[in-house]
């Protein structure tokens, strides 16, 4: 009986030893830790991230909306003397705005005039005009009424005294020394251009063109009756 128990325990121990050392084969789910790590691919590039980051990274990135070019609904240039119409229109037609360009008449009441006193005669006025042209002054008007300003030269009529003083200062910088300012209520018929749906490229071209235009104001379109 003891011999039977001995051999039974001996065989059991041998079976247990073989199982522990892998002699009986490997079970599918019994892969040891070192061998499992060897089977992983490129473990050096694994990075641990949080659950919220993983959720965010899996969401599709929304495309930024395309920025639309800026368009000016209606731009107005004015107010110009009727005598300047041909020169201004010759410049504006290079923009090729077609029916997006229109012209409006404006009645403007001014109260201050920059002028050169009477030159005594038409010949004297013509001589003074030649001097003005030589120094680059092209905006003028020979006064021919029967007042004491006859054969004087108007260099601009302005709504405010401040605007008249600024224009006189600009003329002085060009070399005009005999110009003066006087109050004079006068209504003049001028005109302005309205330019519709002006895009960025057209505005850049316009800015380059209007540098050579007579004194003017650039503004949003005024309502016309």
Number of helices: 7
Order of helices and strands: HHHEHEHEEHEHE
Shape: rod-shaped
Distance between the termini: 130 Å
Question: How many E-type strands?
Answer: 6
Largest sheet: 6 strands, antiparallel
- Largest beta sheet: what is the strand line-up? 3-4-2-5-1-6
Helix content: 25-40%
Give the mean pLDDT.
80
Which structural class best describes the helix and strand composition?
alpha+beta
Low-pLDDT regions: 27-31
Beta-strand content:
25-35%
Rg over alpha carbons: 46 Å
Protein name: SPOR domain-containing protein
Brief sketch in words of this structure:
This is SPOR domain-containing protein. 35% of the residues lie in helices and 26% in strands. By secondary structure, it is α+β, with helices and mostly antiparallel strands.
What does it look like?
By secondary structure, the chain is an alpha+beta fold. The chain has a domain at 71-220. Helices cover 35% and strands 26% of the residues. The protein contains seven helices and six strands; from the N terminus they run H-H-H-E-H-E-H-E-E-H-E-H-E. It has helices at 2-20, 33-39, 51-58, 85-92, 122-134, 161-174, 200-209; strands at residues 71-81, 101-116, 141-142, 153-158, 180-199, 217-220. It has a six-stranded antiparallel beta sheet with strand order 3-4-2-5-1-6. The model is unreliable at 27-31 (pLDDT under 50). This is SPOR domain-containing protein.
